[in-house]
Specification:
The complex is a heterodimer of chains A (about 300) and B (about 240).
Chain A: H1 3-34, H2 41-55, H3 61-84, H4 92-114, E1 132-134, E2 137-139, H5 141-163, H6 165-175, H7 177-182, H8 187-213, H9 220-234, H10 239-256, H11 265-279, H12 288-293
Antiparallel strand pairs in A: 1-2
Chain B: E1 2-13, E2 16-27, E3 31-35, H1 42-50, E4 57-62, E5 65-66, H2 71-76, E6 79-82, H3 94-101, H4 103-106, H5 115-122, H6 124-128, H7 139-152, E7 157-161, H8 169-184, E8 188-193, H9 196-202, E9 205-210, E10 213-219, H10 220-225, H11 227-234
Classes of the chains: A mainly alpha (about 300), B alpha/beta (about 240).
Bound molecules: adenosine-5'-diphosphate and magnesium ion (MG).
Chain lengths: ~300, ~240
């Protein structure tokens, strides 16, 4: 394979990979504070993109994106307040059914508001044919936007959780909710914040990817499956591993075109998911010990 | 002056009634100890006071005011619980655990974190282990961390649920010493113990709880000399 083709595949893989990682981190943030796998995670990505596209008709792109992220974040918070908060230690199965129900609800609402049409935000720089040359490969500036923005989110989140008071308090809720309460932390509001944060970063991803992948009312479940694969691959709750796993999945998918036809690409992540669930259910990077501690 | 007053408290898990009308009080500056067999309802009582469990009926008055319903607000009012089984934040460092303990304080004023030095002075081992993950500490160290974390909130009333359970005798001695020092430093202490003798020795007053009811109360020295208490909880009867 030529260096040019290799670079082309690599960038494509990284772009999708980091996107999957963002969705996976969204899963993990909510999982860590609540123990819930939120299968409506992909819908947040869709909502972010759709809201930004609609708002862009009335305002400049940065403002539209910012507002879309805020709106999606608020929707995430409301979902927690309306549907999740009052449940008193629900079973895992019940939570899965509820979040899948929510994802259907949001999708149908999006279908009602935006219809079936495929939309997209404009390219942030130039247009569909603009490209920069890297090792002879033509890379769209939007790809660099996706990689750049998603990297900033990943680094920003890890700094947030490690070094800020609010981040530390959210980690405390994740580590031991009773103990956090006994420290005087309002764990309920932290959980609401975790839904808002999770929805917000999903929305950012939905905006930066929109020019490349397009946005439609039903892109959520596909993304959720990719994100979930990455979560399982990296080990539930482990966001740094999710980045590595996301990149791995993205790059594998991208290079798989060489050996399997395009149409089968979707099957790859499902196959990986099933294999990992059978062989290493605690993830590639997790220890079996932590898997025992998790009740999923 | 009453720090804590409980009137006719009943509590249940589902249909199972566990507390059947508990009344007790703790005066400011006292160490009061509550002894009772496994399953008597001691932990349930502390859960009710700290707001983790909503009681069915009864009144809990802290420092002259009825306690709020939410557990986090009760902590903010100056009532901290060192829970049964330590409950440290295992994946976080010792220092982070202590900082989180000061949540109700640093929310108002970040300078409150200076209190960490006081806790380190009380538990030098925590200073040595400051950057270690709490989950890797020994049982005794975790107990000290749980106590230190509660102290970071500068509580007026500190409640300890079986702090000595499962620890080596030397560490137990140390822990009881520190409980006495907490009182000297101005805290009021409500102590629950399986180790009834050691607890009654440092306490001013005591209560005995049996299947959800207070069956006996009085000055700690009286309880130590009470034949029924000796037989049931102290393991021997003098002069028999
Ligand atoms: N979460 C719970 N759900 C149901 N029953 C419980 C629960 N916790 C404790 N109990 C029951 O309540 C009674 C009192 O328990 P507890 O307060 O923990 O006793 P103690 O702390 O004195 O050992 C026991 O019979 C116990 O089985
Ligand atoms: Mg108990």
């Amino acid at each position: 394979m030529s260096l040019q083709l290799f670079t082309q595949y690599l960038f494509s893989g990284i772009t999708y990979g980091i996107l999957y990682a963002i969705v996976a981190i969204g899963f993990n943030i909510i999982y860590n504070t609540t123990g819930i796998i939120n299968f409506a995670q992909g819908e947040f990505v869709m909502l972010g993109g759709m809201c930004a596209i609609s708002l862009h008709e009335y305002m400049p792109l940065p403002a539209a994106i910012l507002l879309a992220v805020i709106i999606t974040g608020i929707i995430g918070g409301l979902i927690e307040i309306i549907f999740i908060r009052w449940l008193d230690s629900p079973s895992v199965l019940r939570m899965i059914i509820i979040t899948i129900g929510l994802s259907i609800l949001i999708r149908e609402a999006a279908l009602f508001v935006w219809g079936e049409s495929v939309r997209s935000l404009p390219y942030f720089n130039g247009d569909a044919v603009t490209s920069v040359q890297i090792f002879g490969a033509n890379i769209s500036p939007q790809v660099l936007w996706v990689i750049g923005v998603c990297s900033v989110i990943v680094v920003g989140l890890s700094l947030f959780f490690q070094f800020t008071y609010a981040g530390r308090e959210m980690r405390a809720c994740a580590a031991n909710r009773t103990a956090a309460t006994l420290c005087g932390i309002n764990t309920r509001s932290k959980i609401t914040w975790s839904f808002m944060l999770s929805a917000g970063i999903g929305a950012v991803a939905g905006c930066v990817m929109s020019p490349i992948t397009y946005t439609q009312y039903d892109i959520g479940p596909g993304l959720a499956i990719k994100g979930f694969t990455v979560v399982i691959l990296g080990g539930l709750g482990n966001s740094m591993a999710a980045v590595a796993a996301g990149l791995l999945l993205g790059i594998v998918e991208s290079f798989s075109i060489i050996v399997v036809p395009m149409a089968y690409q979707e099957v790859i992540s499902i196959a990986i998911l099933l294999i990992v669930l059978f062989v290493r259910p605690h993830g590639l990077f997790g220890s079996s010990e932590t898997a025992c501690l998790q009740d999923f | 002056m009453r720090m804590l007053k409980i009137k006719n408290l009943t509590a249940a898990y589902g249909r199972v009634r566990v507390l059947k009308g508990i009344s007790l009080h703790v005066n400011k500056g006292e160490i009061v100890c509550l002894i009772g067999a496994n399953g008597a309802g001691k932990t349930t009582l502390l859960s009710s006071i700290s707001g983790l469990l909503r009681p069915l009926t009864g009144e809990i008055i802290l420092n002259g005011t009825l306690i709020p319903r939410r557990a986090d607000k009760i902590v903010a009012l100056g009532c901290s619980l060192v829970p049964e089984g330590r409950q440290v934040f295992a994946p976080m460092t010792v220092r982070e655990n202590l900082i989180l303990g000061a949540y109700v304080q640093y929310r108002k004023d970040k300078k409150a974190l200076a209190g960490i030095e006081t806790v380190y002075d009380l538990f030098p081992v925590l200073r040595e282990r400051a950057e270690q993950l709490a989950g890797t500490l020994s049982g005794g160290e975790q107990q000290m961390l749980a106590m230190g974390r509660a102290l970071m909130a500068k509580p007026k009333l500190i409640m300890l649920d079986e702090p000595s359970t499962g620890l080596a005798p030397l560490i137990v001695k140390n822990i009881f010493k520190i409980i006495q020092r907490m009182r000297t430093a101005g805290a009021t202490v409500l102590l629950i113990e399986q180790n009834a003798r050691a607890a009654l020795k440092i306490a001013d007053r005591g209560y005995v709880i049996e299947t959800g009811k207070i069956i006996l109360q009085g000055p700690a020295s009286d309880l130590l000399n009470n034949r029924d208490v000796q037989r049931a909880y102290l393991g021997r009867v003098k002069g028999e």
